[in-house]
Amino acid sequence: MRVLHRKLWRDMGARRAQFLAVVVTIGLGLTLFALSYDAYRNLLASYQRVFDLTGFADYTVAGGDTKAIVSAGETVPGVGAAAERRVADVPLRLDGDKLLGRVVGLPASAQPPINGVLVLVGDYLTPGKTGGVLVEKHAAEHFGLAPGSSLEVLAADGWRTLEMVGKAASAEYLWPARSRQDVLPSADDFAVVFASEALLDELDPAAVRREALFAYAGGADRAAADAALGRIAERHDAVDAFAQVDQPSNAALSEDIQGFGAMAVMFPALFLGAAGMATYVLLTRLVLAQRSQIGLMLANGFGRGTVFRHYLGFGLVAGLLGTVPGLAAGILLARSVTRLYTDAISVPVRVTEIHPETIVVGLLFGVGAGALATLAPARRAAKLPPATAMRGAEMGGRGGQSLLERIVPPLRRLPARWKMVVRGIARSRRRSFSTALGVVFAATLILTSWGMIDTTQTLLARQFGEVQKQDAQVYLAREASPAVAAEVAGVEGVVAVEPAADYVVGVRSAAGSYQTSLVAFERDTVMHGFSPVSGGPDGLPAEGLLLGAALRERLDLAVGDEVEVVQPGAGITVRERVAGFVDEPLGTYAYIALPRLAEVLGRDPDEIVNSLMVGMDPAADTARVRDRLAAVPGVAAVVDSRALERAADDYMGLFYAFVGLMVALGAVMALALIFTTMSANISERVTELASLRAAGMGRRTLARLITGENMLLTVLGIVPGLIVGYLSARVFMAMFSSDLFSFDLAMRPTTPVFVAVALLVAALLSQWPVLRAVDRVDMAKVVRERSQ
Amino acid sequence: MTPTEASARSGDAGLELRGVGKTYGSGAVAVQALKHVDLGIAPGQFVVILGPSGSGKTTLLNIVGGIEEPSEGSLSVAGQELASLSRAELTRYRREQVGFVFQFFNLVPTLTALENVELVAELAGQSERSAEALADVGLADRLERFPSELSGGEQQRVAIARALVKRPRLLLCDEPTGSLDLDTGRQVLALLHAASRGDGRTVVVVTHNSAIARAADRVIRMGSGEIVADEVQDSPIGPGEVVW
């Protein structure tokens, strides 16, 4: 081994704690990168595999003249296949529970070319056996159904018994979203079955909608095909038309995975940035301490390139030592994260691959971060004039009043020892900047993560506390009499009942069409809260529609514009003015006053009511009340809002775990970085500190001064860190926002305080080894030498 | 009684070392820096300890200053045994009774001359004397200058003011003129001399510069960790006459 290499290793050994901190930070960054990026790619691949296996539709059109749409669509360049099918939203009865159901029609003879299913257990449908159905995976597993199990569907002439012939997975229900408005359904409330087209004939025609499905050929210009099919759909009066990316399940998963993808890049970048800062600080200190050695090397004929490479090696080695195990750990953990994730959302196919680009990009970034951080100090070392360098270290820092003293003149009257603390910040501006920037990174990482948790929790609480105030929504059978409302009101545990109408409709404007639910309430409803956007009506207006805020842009609407609300199956086609927009966390609905809906339809309000909003006694056992409600004749389905809230919380579990990990790693990063910079700070001033000890300054006083300076530096980083973190959290939440979720950042006021305290604690903890080092300083040795 | 009149080896010496030894390391790598040193220094003496590098003179100074513990023997200052002091008491001893002056000044670069002195004066509750201490060393017009704005000699004078401001019983100086030119060195030497003469303070200067020894009341020569010569000078020259 060359002597210079030996020196490099020994230099690292001499600063092993700081060097280890740098290596650990780089390693954590790379672990996080490989873990999240590989898991992200695995999930994408898993979804894609299911899409490929089932022939997931590239474009779907609902309603309108589907036959004509299919015919016209087949001629669109890039369209490889087209098909028609029927889908019905009808109540199901499973294990005594009445819930919202969806029957998806399939050809009984063979799998369809588009939107087929993966039969996981049992057999595919059999021609002639109309009552044999495939139950979608989520429902089958939730209700513990197996081939042979019975279930019922509300057919046109009453409940019809069906037999489960198999358990199936579908690309359309990878995430069991009922609609774009209902992407977080509870498995208690919604189930999908795949049945022979013949069964659809037996269902209430009003509940059945036709769909045209299109699959693109390889190499198709997807954007052009989407646009062409959209125009065809519009021409043939379709209620809704959407590309694969907007399909409810896929859209929900995409929102989730895009956030994952963004985190896979941004969070590791913060770590590598912090590691770079720490490496820079460490090497700058090393070069300063080794000035005389550098001078000696240069004076003895070592080339500047050799000196440059020698110090650059420090960063390269730190990068490599952190990157290799970090990447390996990340790649291994990615498999577990993929498994956890696919299990959590019941993805039937799991693809776990090693992605060479993860390794290449990881190595480049990890080693690059180390090398980049050492570039400047290594260049400085190589450029030192030998004679100057051999004089050894220069006095650390110049004098001058600190900015703080200039801004706050009373600080000038502080005791000298506290002035030393205040001025210590400006002593090595680059290092102070690095420390503060590292704290900014840590604050950003933690606050962004925490802000995401806050927002999700706040918005879910708002959705289920201020917007959806009912405890349950009871869907009525078509033949139900108005007397059902009175019966429901009489159910033990029910304290309030309100009639409502809830229809799947298309809202059309000149700019396009959007499928949603039109929900009609009594004007003085206590079951729903309306949060107006920018000065809209406070509550449900007597006339006009309240629309979810996302439709403002999506349909290019403003208050006062007229829109068409279409539901061919229910015979609804009305034109109504937009009275305002509402801000709701989940979904994008249309609301109208029940009397107004009856008026524009020219029907009696009792005729259009198809559901009841129910308030329960808070002390009641909701499960039992739900059972009692389901037992009322004329009740087709019961949706328990509290179960929905619990389900939403459950869905968030994995997200919370991931974000929680980020918070913990952010704290570790802060700890490692602050430790490294503080150590450099102290080692540079060891002579000065030893002199003060020799002059009779007690250990505690000295510890207080050092801690004070480091805490001040941490605070200087925390303030911008909280601002950047807040903005970053906003950007992140905006990435998740769409018509499915409205995730405006809702950070609790206490969160920045907790983050600030957490960082201060991390900084305080990182003091401990530094103060121990100060405590161990050999005064006698140090005071007779220049700072080394 | 002037220091020169006092018996250098008197039993009532302000400072007394009995069989003091110091060994660094252990086993094969053990280095004996001080070997069984017996020494008494009377209050008010201006003592110069001479010796080549490695002779043990700085180790001796550090032990007297309470920043290093002897491996063997005992040491008392004004009758107080240092070995019996706890760490906190040793800190108080340094704070109240010892002033250090180092070759490289060891000033805090972010504090002005006045603040550097105040830093130590505050420890001893003497901060009101800081400006006066600087005036005493001829720096009344340099109070607000930062170390980087002062010459080497001025920085060393700040260091001396810092050491003297708390009125220590002992002023211990390690190569105080080592980084200075002749004129500046003489000025510093004069200050140390005055500290001894004016205030009756014991001043111990460690140096390898034998020229300085001529200004001392007593010259102790060390070699290989031992005192090889101990000479009292009845007629030391003035600091201004020292030449090197």
In short:
The complex is a heterodimer of chains A (788) and B (244). Chain A is 53% helix and 19% strand.
3D architecture notes:
The complex is a heterodimer of chains A (788) and B (244). Chain A has 788 residues and is an alpha+beta fold. Chain A is built from 24 helices and 19 strands. In chain A, the strands form two sheets. Chain A has a six-stranded mixed beta barrel. A six-stranded mixed beta barrel of chain A has the order 12-13-17-14-16-15. Chain A is elongated, with a radius of gyration of 33 Å. The two termini of chain A are 26 Å apart. The mean pLDDT of chain A is 86. With 244 residues, chain B is α/β, with parallel strands linked by helices. Chain B has one domain: Rossmann fold, CATH 3.40.50. In chain B, 28% of the residues lie in helices and 25% in strands. Chain B has a six-stranded mixed beta sheet with strand order 6-7-8-3-9-10, with helices on both faces. Chain B has a four-stranded antiparallel beta sheet with strand order 2-1-4-5, covered by helices on one side. The interface between A and B is large, with 33 and 46 residues.
Radius of gyration of chain A: 33 Å
Low-pLDDT ranges of chain A: none
Strand content of chain B: 25-35%
Distance between the termini of chain B: 31 Å
Spatial gap, N to C terminus of chain A:
26 Å
Rg of chain B, rounded, reads 17 Å
Helix content of chain A: 40-55%
Please give the most extensive interface between any two protein chains, plus how many residues each contributes: A-B, 33 and 46 residues
Oligomer: heterodimer
Number of domains of chain B: 1
Rounded mean pLDDT of chain B is 86
Domains of chain A (count): 4
* Fraction of residues in H or I helices of chain B: 25-40%
Question: In terms of structural class, how would the helical and strand content of chain A be classed?
Answer: alpha+beta
Q: What is the residue-mean pLDDT of chain A, rounded to a whole number?
A: 86
